[in-house]
Amino acid sequence: VEFISDYRYELRDSSGALHGQISNGQAITLRYDTNKKEYIAFNENQYASSTLPLRLLPREEASNIFTLKNAINFRGSNKKINYNQFHGILEMRFAAKHVWIVNELNIEEYLHGLAEAGNGSPEEFLKSLAIAARSFAYDAVQNPVKHQREKFNVDAEYDQIYKGVVREKNNSEWVSAVNDTRGTVVTYKGEPVTTPYFAQSNGSTKSFAEVWGKTKPWLIPVKAQYDRGRKRLGHGVGMSTHDALARAKKGAQAEEILKYLK
User: CB 50: neighbour CB atoms within 10 A?
Assistant: First the structure.
């Protein structure tokens, strides 16, 4: 992984030990040696290795951005938009037989970079989805079960689609919805809960128990009237985003949508 930032970073291992200073504008490459089972970081000025995962941490508290120079994550066929910029901390970690590139950042910054919805959707729909996405992410942090072997909280492709700073810059209405609902999560009996969502149902959602085998009383089947006659796309549990969008277009508020679609 080729890392570069306009901000100053420190190279540390997962124990916190300092291995080097990275000046603003200075590139550094991270890799994992599978034979030696060690992490390596190098550029023209320094070389470091460790048996512990290596981390690049910003030296200032202010918001910061880094670029993965050799990452290729284009927006479909548009080769001019590459989702390769991110806020916060970068970590390289070998776990569960794979090398993972982990981006560590606060939940609100993470939400800004999601690609679950775009500009042009009703404000209340975007708010309902922002709250659902935040609740899902918060639960994943509080109950890190799904990716326990890999040692991170959420996958950037299958759990929630996360594209980072480039998406954030081009998705102002979504960012506004995240900001307008800042810190708001769904609760059940006063406790924050997970809130899965999916593309669309066939007219009815499914219970959590029906799909994943454990009862969660806030995730029960309900009629999704605006999905009637459609093909089910996704797991079917929680909020159908197609139905939620239709409800928002009819004038429903975010809280009303969430309470109905669970």
Answer: 18
- Quick check: 137 and 181 in contact, CB under 8 A? no
The Cα 138–Cα 29 span in angstroms is 31
In order of 128, 132, 154, 203, 244, the CA distances from 248 in angstroms are 9, 15, 28, 17, 6
pLDDT at 61: 74
Q: Which of 164, 230, 175 is nearest to 198 (CA)?
A: 230
Please compute the mean of the pLDDT values over residues 152-174 and round it to a whole number. Answer: 96
* pTM, entire model: 0.94
- Map residue 158 onto helix, strand or coil: coil
How large is the average pLDDT for residues 248-252? 97
CB 149 within 8 A of CB 95: yes
For 133, other C-beta atoms within 10 Å of its C-beta total 27
Place of tokens 């690609």: 115
Least confident range from 48-52, 62-66, 107-111, 193-197: namely 62-66
| Structure-token pair, residue 143 | 């109950």
Question: In the predicted model, what is the mean pLDDT of the chain?
Answer: 95
Q: In the 8-state DSSP scheme, what is residue 24?
A: T
Pair type for strands 18-22 and 47-50: unpaired
Estimate to the nearest angstrom the gap between the alpha carbon of 46 and the chain centroid. Answer: 32
